[in-house]
Amino acid sequence: MQTTMIETRALTRRFKDRLAVDAVNLWVPSAGIYGFLGPNGAGKTTTIRMLLGLMRPDAGDICLFDTPLAGNRQGLLQRVGALVETPSLYPHLTGRENLEVTRRLLGAARNLIDRALDIVKLTADASRCVREYSLGMRQRLGLALALLNQPKLLILDEPTNGLDPAGIHEMRDLLRRLPVELGLTVFLSSHLLSEVEQIASHIGIIHAGRLLFQGTLTELQAQQQAQLTIGVTAPERAVQCLAKAGWAVQQRADGMLIVAAASPAVSAQLNHLLVSQGIEVFHLARTQLSLEDIFLALTDGKASERSAL
Amino acid sequence: MKALLRALHAELLKLKRTLAFRMIFVAPLLVALLQFFVGLNQRRIPADFKFWEAVFRNSLSVWAVFMLPLLISLETALLTGIEHSEKQWKHLLALPVPRSAIYTAKLLIALLLALLSTLALCALLVLTGYALVGLRPEYGAASSPDYGWLLQHALMIWLAAWLIIALHTWISIRWSSFTVALGAGVAGTFFALFAASARIGKYYPWLLPLNTVNVGTGESRARLALILGGIGGVIVAVLGDLEFVRRDADEAGITISRRLALLCGATAIGLAALGVYVQLPKAKPALAALSHPRAERVENGLLSAVTIKDVSKPMKLANRMAFYHVPGVSITVINEGKIEWAKGYGVLEDGGDAPVTTEKIGKHWPRGDTAMMAASSKAAGACSLKWRQPDCGRRQPTWRTWRLPCGRRSDSKRNNFSRRNSCVR
Predict the structure, then answer these.
(1) Interface test mutation site (partner A, options B21, B89, B90, max chain A beta carbons within 10 A)
(2) pLDDT in the model for residue A303
(3) Residues in chain B, pLDDT under 50
């Protein structure tokens, strides 16, 4: 059983004087879905292009299936299916003919076309010209192209980009099924965390060319603990009191106090401490940060850090 | 090799329902129609008119110089356009297929389409010929079709076109813009019209197909065209393939406006340079002769009609022109049938400032305000020229006769040029 699907070491690519990808160390384990997250222009597509050998890295190594990509491109790509940005389709050909073009290039078996059409549920529309396809159907046909050669690894760049909510839902269901039913690993990029957090088991967050986080969803959530919002009648005194007890306290503009790292037990303890000091507590709320907040905090924080430099 | 066959197989499917496929029949049809109407409306038919040869040769010439090069630029632009428009490169090049197979397959399809189209033209020409014979029986009397000649020359045209097919394939893969691909074809074909009459016409890529079929260009030119077209085509194909394999895939066909601008600029400069170069050979004899040492001897050594030995002094041309109020003179010396030197003096029009050149004098000299001298360099030393004033009573005076007593008076031998000037007019 393969354990590592993609591994990059200090992968770097420069465009003129801008570092598009800056020493990225990806590690994508087998089976499951790896969400490659980052705002637009973070370096996601550049990384994917390098993984597929469409672009040469300036520095660093890429290994697919524990084998270096350099020198083994053709053999490795035999086991990879890819959908980069918009699907590459010939509008004047039918859905089936589009698959046939790729099948002929690969020299693959004929029955694979029906299989791929079946997976993406396009069998009924296979004989229509792609020109008449909706965006969602095109995206599914693009996925069928990627799945045609029975890959072990599927690399998808923004597979839900430009789709309507129904299309996004459809694509998400499809992607969720793939690792389970076909046993393949999906590496997908997105700029929307909400999309990825529902299906991905692993997450990598890239911003301005640097990989800021890599790990499972639970690890990401653990990175940022919940916070406690406290409303009191005498905020200044409460701050002093809590600080004396060793808590880092922030005061918001509306007078609310924010204490990081709060478990239920800690919440009760803090409440007791304040009340015993004669400070009346009228609001006490624990909030778990959503991944979106964490994502924004990570990317924004690093961004401002960078601009400060 | 297997990969190439697969890529070719895939390319054939891509042609389905495309304009590229239909064009290979439309283009020859246009040429055949043109031939049909020309044949239908021809007035005078000489007794020894070789109808079939004329049909084949005329149409193949039109095909070779005009339709085929344009068809090639259109076809290659269409063939690669289906990859550029939907950003296919990133899909194609991420497949486990050698890149050179993809490039070579495109090139071979372009070659195949050009061949099919040329063969379709042959078939259509035979049909056109028989249609014309049916409509105008007088055509059929003198000759019969030579299919061997037709097929041989069609294949030669195709082979000589390899170079431009390879060039256009590379250009249209390299730049996604349809304008660049078609523009290159139009510019190439357009300048072929100028290059045709120049020495460069032997080597000019867009003229090579024509050189295989054109009358009067001779066997050697046709052979050169086949060699340049075939071998040049293979070389350009290999270079284009290497370039395609080496570059990043996303550079395939992306439009970078700066690059486009550079390309346009370079093309314009190249074409302008080419235009100048093409014009040069015509002007060359005159330019080369300007500094001929004998010119000076004529300019400073004119003698009067009657010369007395040891008394008559040689006169300067400039003084003579002033004396006769002649604004401009052009002198051409022809020796043994070749222009040895030529030079213009003064201005074209009295009071104007356009100088007389060896070319421009020709238009103006019958007006009488110019004088022409001819001298044979066979005569030793400066020539004595007999001037004859134009007939001033007429508005458009012409030179009736001029004679050229050469050398000293005692030299009674007359040069050819001293006869009537009919050969000059």
Answers:
(1) B90
(2) 47
(3) 251-256, 281-291, 361-425
Residues with Cβ within 8 Å of A139's Cβ and at least 6 positions away in sequence, in order, are: A87, A159, A160, A163, A167, A171
Q: Say yes or no: B16 contacts chain A, CB-CB below 8 A.
A: yes
- The CA dihedral of B304, B308, B314, B317, to the nearest 10 degrees, is 0
**Cα dihedral across residues A126, A130, A134, A136: positive or negative:** positive
Over the Cα atoms of chain A, what is R_g? 24
Contact B336, B292 (CB under 8 A): no
Classify residue A215 by burial, with Cβ atoms within 10 Å: 0-12, 13-18, 19+.
middle
Mean pLDDT, chain B, rounded, equals 76
Of B7, B82, B248, the CB nearest to A55: B248
Mean pLDDT of chain A: 87
- Cβ(A205)–Cβ(A211) below 8 Å: yes
Cβ atoms within 10 Å of B14's Cβ, excluding its own: 25
Instruction: For strands A281-287 and A67-68, give the pairing.
Output: unpaired
Looking at CA atoms only, how far is residue A104 from chain B in angstroms? 5
Inform me whether the pLDDT recorded for A296 exceeds 80: no
Torsion of Cα atoms, B406 then B412 then B416 then B420, to 10°: 90
Q: Beginning with the edge strand found earlier in the chain, give each strand of the sheet holding A80-83 in spatial order.
A: A80-83, A153-157, A185-190, A32-37, A202-207, A210-216
DSSP SS3 for B73: helix
The question of ipTM being above 0.85 is answered as: no
Asked if residues A163 and A175 have their Cβ atoms less than 8 Å apart, the reply is: no
pLDDT 10s digits, A77-125: 999 999 988 889 999 999 999 999 999 999 999 999 999 999 999 999 9
Q: Are A202 and A29 in contact (CB under 8 A)?
A: yes
Name the residue facing A78 among B9, B90, B96 (closest C-beta): B96
